[in-house]
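note to self — DONT lose this again. spent like an hour looking for the file last time. sequence + predicted structure for the chain T wanted, 340 res
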Amino acid sequence: MALKLIQAGVGGMGAAWVKALTGRADVEVVAIVDIADKPLIEAGEALNVPAERRFKDLAAAVASVKADAILTVTPPAIHVKHAEIAFANGLHLLTEKPIGGTLDEAKKMVRLAKEAGRVLMVAQNYRYSNAAQTLARLVREAPLGPLGHGHIDFYIPGDFRGSFRQTMEYPLLVDMAIHHLDLIRAVTGRNIVKVTAQTFHPEWSWYQHHPGLKMLMELEGGMPFSYSGDWSGRGRNTTWNGAWRLQCERGSIELLHDGKLLQTSNTFWDEQREQKPIEADVIAEQGQAALLTRFVKAIESGTSPETSGADNLWSFAAVTAGVISSREGRSVDVAGLLQD
């Protein structure tokens, strides 16, 4: 029997979810919610949701339609309100990242889900790409010896003019780097425990706040990992996954700017290098499709999904630590932020 789902937010990024939901047999979209008429009409037609089940308010949709779960694709500050509505009505919740507007809101969402006995899952879709899955496998298998440290570059001139991202504080760190910090955890199998960050605003940037970020992280076990990015950076773009260098004992594993994977082994500078491309693993489902399958499976089996709200607190706390570090000019302990 298909999971009955209400999607809140069907414009912008919500359109990608509409596409992922179209034609699925395991999920039935029983209602949609948005504050604007145009996306309601377009999504309603795509998902065959009749006009009487298109709402401007989530509470009204929940009161009018029988559902099992909610998908919220809305600005982060709204997520906690949608969590309150979902869990008060016994519904499961799949939320876009970042999980909440603040770490306290995120903790509240996790607590409400636990009290209600319902699934809270965060849409960290970047975990479910061929490249990310390949990097994680290579770290586990260690063909060049154990991982010692790593780095990510992210440079894409994101054109979000007119959206909430143009005016939000720390747009790269909060809205985009959450993907990359979560990927660091997924690829290495280690939580981020300390963060030192500097954000900045290039003079050419069209963002109101800081789209630039330099960050040094310490992972569990003392492993260093660094990050450099600019969401207004022009010139050669990286992919959305970023460009990675994983430094291992006998060489490096790289996800290059063009999305190709490369393995290079050598010892000292005057010795011959062995360099070979890596063929990426091909996973059955990627992105939103993979998330939806895992959401349904978690609900049906009563198990916790990989990107549960509780697990995602570690990723969001690392972002929060970056914000605090940038504001206050100090290193921040991530675990300390997770303590109540």
